[in-house]
Each structure stands twice: as C-alpha cells, then as structure tokens.
Amino acid sequence: MLIDIQHLNYTYPSSGGVSVHALNDITVSFEAGSFTAIAGYSGSGKSTFVRHLNGLLRADSGDIRFQGESIYGKKYPISRLRQKVGLVFQYPEHQLFCRTVLEDAAFGPLNMGHDRETAEQMARRALERVGIGEELFSSSPYELSGGQMRRVAIAGVLAMGPEVLVLDEPSAGLDPYAKRQLFSLLKEMQGEGVTIILVSHSMEEIAEYADRVLVFYGGRICMDGSPEEVFSNKEELDRIGLEMPQIMECMWRIREAGIPVEGLSCSEAAAEELILKAMKGGSDA
Amino acid sequence: MLRDITIGKYYNGSSLIHSLDCRTKLAGALLYIVSLFFVKDPILFIPCLVYLLILYRLASIPWHYILKGLRSIVVLLVFTFVFQSLITSGRELFSIGFLSVSYEGLMKAIRLVSRISLMILMASLLAYTTTPTQMAAGLEKSLGFLEKLKVPVHEMAMMVSIAFRFIPVFIEEVNIIMDAQASRGVDFYSGNVFRRMGKMMPLVVPLFVSAIRRSAELAMAMEARGYTDAGNRTRYRELIYTKKDRTAYLISILMFLLILISGLLL
To answer: Which comes out higher in pLDDT, residue A223 or B140?
Structure first.
C-alpha cells in the first residue's frame, strides 16, 4: 500500500465553546496508481482529511504510513512528503504571486532545493503538460484568463513531481471544455502511475473518472467502493444527502416506471446498452 | 504565530451589559477612563477595580478573559513598573548596587501600572460586549453632529464596519494560502527573522490581490442593491435608549464624580 491510514482522529482546537471533532477514527488505504474520489456534503471532513495527507494538519491520534513509513515518526522529513504528495487547493489560482508564469511554477521545485536552472526545467515541463504554451511563460499570471490561471497553479504543484496528487474540487468554476481537459490530464497522469485523490461535489465527475469512491459523513467514512457499488445504494445516499449521478438516476427512473433494466451503471455507453436491451426485451414479450 | 490572530474578540452573550445601547457603553467606558487620571492615592484603585469586576460579572464574562486582556501588555506593564520605580528620585527605600528604588518612584509605578491595566480592562469589556458593527453604528450616531461640518461620518463608519466585517474572512484566507504555499514547500516557521520576512511574499501578494478583488466585488454588489451615500439612511436596527440605559448612564456619571472628587481630595 502506498498510503496506509489507521484510526485517524482530529479535533479542531476550539475557540470559546464548541470543539469540532472533524475526523473520527478514519481507517483507509490507497493503492499506488489508483484514482479515488472523495464525496460528502460541506463540513463532512473531506478537506480536513486531505490536509492530513501531506502533513499540514497533524492528527490527535492514529497513524499515516506513506510508503511504509510513518509520517509522524520523529525523523520523518516532512518537506519530502510535501514534494511526494502534491496538494492542489480549491481555487488554486488565488495563490499565484510571482511576476511571471514560469517563476510561479518554479517556486515549488526551488523550495525543494533544486537550483534555478533545474527548477525552471521542471516548471517548463509541468506547464507544457497542462497546456500552457511557451509564449505565456513570461507573462504575468494575473493577465491570464481564469482557466489558464487554474492550469498554471496546478502546474506549480505538478512541477514538484509528486507521486500522489490530491485535488480539492479542482473543477469548480471551470467551463465544460476546461473541465474535460483537466480530467484527461488527470487520467493521463494516472496512466503514468501517479495516484490521484480527488475531492468533488459532482457525482457525474466521480462516476466518470474515479475507480473508487469514499463518502465522508460527519467525520467518518461511511461508504467505500466502486462508483457502481456506492451509487446504487440509494437509501444510504438519501440518508447522507448525496445524489446519484444523472445517468444512474435516469436508469433508476426507467426501472421505477416498470421497465426491467438489469443493473445500474455509471458509464454512458454501458447504460445505453442496458436500457436498449431492456426496452427490446419489453417489446419482444 | 500568525494563525493565532484573534481580533474582534466579541464574547457572545445576552447579559445586561450586552443589551445596553452601545453609546451608553462607549460613554461609560470613556468616563471611567477619564476618571482614572484623577486618582492619586493608589488605595483608590481598589474601589475602581471592584467596580470593574462587578461590571465583568454583570456581563457574565468568564474570569480568565480578564487575564487574557492583560496578557498582551504584560511586557509593557513590567517595563513601566521597573523604570518608573528606578528613575524617580526621592526617599530611598532600598538599593541594589547603583540602582535605588524610592518611595515616590514605587508609588508612581503602582499608580501608572494600575491605571494602564484598568484602562485596558475597561476597553476590553467594551470590546467583549459590543460587536464591531454595533460599535461603528454607535460611533456614527454619536459623531453625527460632525456631518454639519461636512465630515463624512456615515461613509467613514461604513468603511470601518466593512473593514471589521472582513477580518475573519481574511484570517480564513491567510490560513488557506499558508497551507497552499506550505504544500509547495515553504516553511514559514524556520529561519531567522529576515528569512521569515522574505517568506511572507508568497502570502502577502495573494492576500492583497484577493483584498482588491473582494472590494471590487463588494462595491458592485452594494451598487446592485441600490446603495448610495446620498440622503439620510435609516437603520435596520435603530439605536434607542431604554430605561436600562438611563440607569447605566446615571451609575456611570455617579461613579465618575465619586472617583473624581475622592481623587481630588485624597
């Protein structure tokens, strides 16, 4: 296992009165090269959880092992962990600050202790990956469009060459085209062996791209499985206030209407096939 | 540490003091602070302290909040005390080497330290029981007469209350940006002062950009809802004096006169 998390607990330090038990006995592990999505309503502990993955927050109890080594060990180099586990925050474009795009993307590698030349090399490669061309390298990040800024910010994390990429709602506020581009990049990176952990509110995104879904509810993981498994459990979804992806919802309704669709699927192609089969079966009879 | 900033230390409650009109509280605090300057004999600070403690009790503020207010100025108090007792000449009480402490110096030091502490405590009580918005509204109304002298009181009060309103927003933002830059390998907590100051750039630039963006958005939203600075604006929550306020004024003024007269006599 790449990341192995045991009985993680975290309570936010209280400021006058109520303390928030944000994570409650979380035990979960992530395989190298997997694509895991994390869902759950706002305040369910998702963001708190991902902040533990690169040591920004330190759990009150429990342990996180990264590549077999506890990150809470006394001698564990936390800066190396931050290089290996790249964390992309919500609206990452708000964190741009350098004069030029290239400088900003090179900021991470520089902090990792690379010399300027190597750092810029890494930044160039990352920027090209996210589709930012050479001609934009020397412009100010604030001159770019929203989507471009987002990509530059993501490149800033990619430049460090992380083995695990954690993204907190990376597609919020992007147009559909930019979204598709972003996700094809993530899929491509997964293909190269990078582990992806994605926090998302969009069930469609999760259904389409993730291999596994974790559902957070009140600081606990209440569901864990493939998108098909998780999303077909309608009762549980209703209880915690999540919705099925539209495709599944559609199949569900068809079934409710009396047409016996076998199984529920998250992918459009499979759904189409199942629905057509059911309809044909109906007309044959 | 940067993360521990807690400004706007309003203590949520529904006590008698909380429910007073903020103008009453402002006037009461002001009278008290002024009266402290007339106190010469340190003994008189004891009734002043008792009065203050009663007010804290009435406001149902936990005792440790009182110390919290003083903790931030402990260094100032200690320095004041030491220097005042050393530099004032007079009847010598005792001496350590070439430093000597005089009776007059000690008295002066006690007086100053008590005065500063009581002032801070009263000001904190005001901050604990009055939200910044109320404070701005109260100031606006109290200083309303300045409008006649073409001082833009309303606009200034508006700016002040907006500024207060955004403090928690920016604290939240600082935390997120710090986390994000830490994820890119910045270590905010190591290195000497100068190195740490250099590391503030990745924090300060995004914060300024976001402040400008937010203010432009806010201005637009306010205009979209028809805000103008022209004409007399009415308030959602009118400031009205009640019987409680009249009693509070009476007590404040009585206390003021009492301290003033005894201060002048003793």
So the answer is: A223
